[in-house]
Amino acid sequence: MPKLRAETHQPVSVADAPELVLVQPEAERRRGLPRPLRRAIGPVLLVALWHVLSVTGVLPPTVLAGPATVLSSAASLWATGELQAAILASLGRAASGLAIGGTIGISLAVISGLFRLGEDLVDSTMQMLRTVPNIALIPLFIIWFGIGEAPKVALIALATAFPLYLNVYAGIRNVDQTLVEAARTLGLSRPAMIRHVILPGALPNALVGLRYSLGVAWLALVFGEQVNATAGVGYLMNNAREFFQTDVIVVCLVVYALLGLIVDFIVRLLERLLLAWRPAFSGA
C-alpha cells in the first residue's frame, strides 16, 4: 500500500504574491470627450452654419433671422414676461392632455393585455381609431367643445393615448412565458403575478410609449394652439406670422424643441431609475 506523503506548505510572502491588474473595459479605454460634449457638437455646428449663412447674406432676415437677432428677441420677450406666460400656458395644456390620454391609453392597454375578453372588446376598436388622423378631428372637437381650452386638451389627449396603448399592450403580451409559468409554479396568486412579473416586464415598453407620447404631445400642441388660442407659444407664433417676424417664430420653435428635450431627458432618468435591474446594450 503506498505511503501517504505529507506536503508542507511554505508561507507566501506579500512580495511573492501575484500583482492584481485592474482590467478596464474597452469602451472606457476608447472614450475621449465626455458624452454631453459629444452630443452638443451637432447642435453647435448647426448654429454656427446658420450664423455664417446669416452674416454672409445667404439667408436674408426676411427669410430667416440670424441667431443674434433670435437671441435678442428671446431676451425681449423674456424681459416683458410674455415668453414665460406662453411657456406655462403650453405646458399646462400638454400636461393636462397627456394625463387624460395617458390614463385612458394605459387603462385600456392593461385591460386588453391581461384579459382575452378585454382584447376582444377593446383592441379592434383601438386599432381602428388610431388610423384616423387626429388633425381631421379638430372641426368635430370645435363643434363638441367650443373654441376654448377643451378642444386643445382633447386633441393632445387623443394623440397621446394611442402610443401608450400600443406599447403597454405589446409589453404585457411580450412578457416571457417562462417567467409566468415559474410564478405559477411558485404559487403566486394572479394579482401578485401581475404586480411582480407582468407589469415589471412591460415597464420598458411603457417607458418607450411615454417617450413617444411626449413627442406626439408637442406636435398636437402646435396644431391645437392654432385654434383660437389667446395664450401659449402657438399664440406667439401666430402673431409673429401675421407681422412676418421670423425671429419670434424661430424663438417659438426653439422653445418647443427645448421643452421636448427636457421632458425626454426626464423620461431617460426614469428609465435609469426604474430599469436599473435590467442590463441593456449601451452602444459600442
TrEMBL record:
<dbReference type="GO" id="GO:0005886">
    <property type="term" value="C:plasma membrane"/>
</dbReference>
<keyword id="KW-1003">Cell membrane</keyword>
<feature type="transmembrane region" description="Helical">
    <location>
        <begin position="193"/>
        <end position="210"/>
    </location>
</feature>
<feature type="transmembrane region" description="Helical">
    <location>
        <begin position="129"/>
        <end position="147"/>
    </location>
</feature>
<keyword id="KW-0812">Transmembrane</keyword>
<protein>
    <submittedName>
        <fullName>ABC transporter permease</fullName>
    </submittedName>
</protein>
<feature type="transmembrane region" description="Helical">
    <location>
        <begin position="248"/>
        <end position="270"/>
    </location>
</feature>
<dbReference type="InterPro" id="IPR000515">
    <property type="entry name" value="MetI-like"/>
</dbReference>
<dbReference type="GO" id="GO:0042918">
    <property type="term" value="P:alkanesulfonate transmembrane transport"/>
</dbReference>
<keyword id="KW-0472">Membrane</keyword>
<feature type="domain" description="ABC transmembrane type-1">
    <location>
        <begin position="87"/>
        <end position="267"/>
    </location>
</feature>
<comment type="function">
    <text>Probably part of an ABC transporter complex. Probably responsible for the translocation of the substrate across the membrane.</text>
</comment>
<feature type="transmembrane region" description="Helical">
    <location>
        <begin position="40"/>
        <end position="59"/>
    </location>
</feature>
<feature type="transmembrane region" description="Helical">
    <location>
        <begin position="98"/>
        <end position="117"/>
    </location>
</feature>
<dbReference type="InterPro" id="IPR035906">
    <property type="entry name" value="MetI-like_sf"/>
</dbReference>
<keyword id="KW-1133">Transmembrane helix</keyword>
<comment type="similarity">
    <text>Belongs to the binding-protein-dependent transport system permease family.</text>
</comment>
<keyword id="KW-0813">Transport</keyword>
<feature type="transmembrane region" description="Helical">
    <location>
        <begin position="216"/>
        <end position="236"/>
    </location>
</feature>
<feature type="transmembrane region" description="Helical">
    <location>
        <begin position="153"/>
        <end position="172"/>
    </location>
</feature>
<dbReference type="Pfam" id="PF00528">
    <property type="entry name" value="BPD_transp_1"/>
</dbReference>
